[in-house]
Amino acid sequence: MQNQVTIIEHPLIQHKLTLMRKAETSTTKFRNLLKEISLLLAYEVTRDLPLKSEQIKTPLAPMNAPVLAPDKKLVLVSIMRAGQGILDGMLELIPSARVGHIGLYRDPKTLIPVEYYFKVPHDVEQRDMIVVDPMLATGNSAIAAVERLKSTNPLSIRFVCLLAAPEGIKHFCETHSDVPIYAAAIDDYLDEHGYIIPGLGDAGDRLFGTK
Ligand SMILES: O=P(O)(O)OC[C@H]1O[C@H](OP(=O)(O)OP(=O)(O)O)[C@H](O)[C@@H]1O
Ligand SMILES: O=c1cc[nH]c(=O)[nH]1
Ligand SMILES: [Mg+2]
């Protein structure tokens, strides 16, 4: 199977992403912008959710109105820390979604992800999964997270990020060819430390003000 890679080129996303990239953007602004963009990413990644009809009454007339099909249950999984920034926005749009967390940090020397936390809802086998992390750089973290999450048997998995490097997309697609990727932009390349260029720096540090 060949991955579907969707670049979400909506002007509002692109404008807000530019503001996030700027070195002078404060932690508060960075966090707010990521939340705002995440609402728009959530809109795109849920575009094909099935609907059913429900009989309702407006103040003027009865009608058959569309509502989300009740069996379409979602679980959002944040790759901590930086995934929390996308999770917050998505939960605002999909408040009934269940939430899982996987804690990973990238060893700065080896660029190998180290897991420090894992918790997903017990009924994940009946849910479609949306995994979120702003950055897909080497792809090692997303690959490890998805591998771990596949072992819990969700109905399906989608991966949503803000920025991706071409190297990370290639690596991820070679490993998890069945998982569609949604991103706001694909940047140019990775530097010798595994940072996305031009990128936006370390998403976790910028989100939480840890540097
Ligand atoms: O594709 P990769 O090369 O694996 O890099 C991407 C990972 O790096 C960042 O996390 P980081 O390790 O900085 O942890 P943090 O979220 O706690 O800052 C980012 O949020 C991804 O999880
Ligand atoms: O550019 C990068 C690469 C990995 N993780 C980040 O937060 N930023
Ligand atoms: Mg980080």
Polypeptide structure, described:
The chain has helices at residues 11-21, 27-45, 83-93, 140-150, 166-175, 203-208; strands at residues 5-7, 51-57, 62-68, 74-80, 98-106, 113-119, 128-132, 135-136, 156-160, 163-164, 181-183, 185-186, 189-190, 196-197. It has 211 residues and is α/β, with parallel strands linked by helices. The protein has a single domain (5-47, 75-208), classed as Rossmann fold. Strands 1-11-9-7-4-5-6 form a seven-stranded mixed β-sheet, with helices on both faces. β5 (98-106) and β6 (113-119) form a beta hairpin. α2 packs across α3 (83-93). The longest helix has 19 residues, at 27-45. The termini are far apart. The mean pLDDT is 96. The structure holds 1-O-pyrophosphono-5-O-phosphono-alpha-D-ribofuranose, uracil and magnesium ion. This is Uracil phosphoribosyltransferase. Keywords: Allosteric enzyme, Glycosyltransferase, GTP-binding, Magnesium, Nucleotide-binding, Transferase. Residues 8-210 form the Phosphoribosyltransferase domain.
Integer count of domains: 1
The computed structural class is: alpha/beta
Strand order of the largest sheet: 1-11-9-7-4-5-6
Globular, elongated, flat, extended or rod-shaped: what is the shape?
globular
Oligomeric state: single chain
The radius of gyration over CA amounts to: 18 Å
- CATH fold-level label: Rossmann fold
**Number of helical segments?**
6
Strand segment count: 14
